[in-house]
Design goal:
Blueprint: E1 12-17, H1 23-31, E2 39-44, E3 53-55, H2 69-84, E4 90-95, E5 98-100, H3 102-109, H4 112-119, E6 126-127, E7 130-132, E8 140-142, E9 148-151, H5 152-160, H6 162-165, H7 175-183, H8 209-214, H9 222-238, E10 255-257, H10 261-272
Parallel strand pairs: 1-2, 1-4, 2-3
Antiparallel strand pairs: 4-9, 5-10, 6-9, 7-8
């Protein structure tokens, strides 16, 4: 894990969508990776000073249910734009079942690759893991499981542009597809920056580490099924070599998905603590 402060000298805001039933997970986030973010938001269905949850309205007829995620995410992006745009360099948006390795994410965001990409006219630092659309095989999106990260430049142009005009009344659970489709309207260039490391291993993970470490020898249901399809899609479209297991998991990984509160604390022990007093 990168330890040079100079290589992590970016300000990162972590925005997490949750609800009042997710307090166990957001408490674990606050105790672990959340305190390493420069800014932290738990966008919820109600406000609670003790848990740090903040009520952000949902414009969806489905309210704060899973089917209201598109409108909830639009609200979060507008809120970040209105209140934090000038104070942070990057914004990571994810659910409450993610473990984020903040130091590695900052190192990646501060890299020459990301800086040069974002500094290029018509390109935006938008990073995550590319999934193939499950209905339209020639379409793709950055998967919301691990979350996705956008630069200040992208947040500004996205909220001032596509957020206003790109299917603003859209409803449903697939916020990652909606945000990615609208992000593609920002540019005629590739709409995301390659987030793999120097040897082609992946940083943004859609499953827990044990799933990635054993797939495809072991199948883990829909998560690894979609992962396998995504890797083959990326190979065909972008020429990324298909890799598995140790070759798939980057030493500078930034996010794992489908992580319980107990697993977040366990990851924290493995990564940062001696482990004996905690165990």
């Amino acid at each position: 894990m990168e330890t040079s402060k100079e290589k992590r000298d970016v300000k990162l805001f972590c925005a997490t969508y949750t609800y009042s039933g997710g307090i166990d997970k957001t408490t674990a986030i606050s105790e672990t990776w959340g305190k390493k973010c420069d800014g932290l938001l738990f966008a919820s269905d109600n406000s609670n000073l003790e848990t740090g949850h903040m009520h952000l309205p949902s414009n969806s007829p489905n309210g704060f249910t899973y089917k209201g995620m598109v409108q909830r995410t639009r609200t979060i992006l507008a809120y970040l734009y209105d209140n934090f745009l000038d104070d942070f360099d990057f914004f990571h948006i994810s659910g409450d079942d993610v473990y984020l390795i903040v130091e590695n994410l900052k190192e990646f965001l501060a890299s020459d690759r990301v800086k040069e990409w974002d500094d290029t006219e018509g390109k935006y630092a938008f990073s995550g893991f590319v999934y193939q659309h499950h209905k339209y095989r020639n379409r793709e999106y950055l998967a919301g499981g691990s979350g996705y990260t956008m630069s200040k430049k992208m947040l500004k142009d996205f909220v001032e542009g596509p957020l206003q005009t790109c299917d603003p009344m859209r409803n449903g659970p697939e916020e990652d597809i909606a945000i990615s489709e609208c992000a593609q309207k920002l540019t005629t260039e590739q709409y995301f920056v390659d987030s793999r490391d120097a040897v082609g291993a992946y940083r943004y993970h859609q499953c827990p580490v044990q799933h990635h470490a054993t797939f495809p020898t072991r199948e883990w249901g829909i998560g690894t099924f979609l992962l396998g399809k995504a890797l083959k899609y990326q190979e065909k479209k972008y020429g990324y070599p298909v890799v598995y297991k140790d070759a798939y998991i980057s030493n500078s990984s930034v996010a794992f998905h489908r992580i319980s509160a107990a697993e977040m604390r366990r990851y924290e022990i493995f990564l940062y603590l001696d482990g004996h007093p905690e165990c």
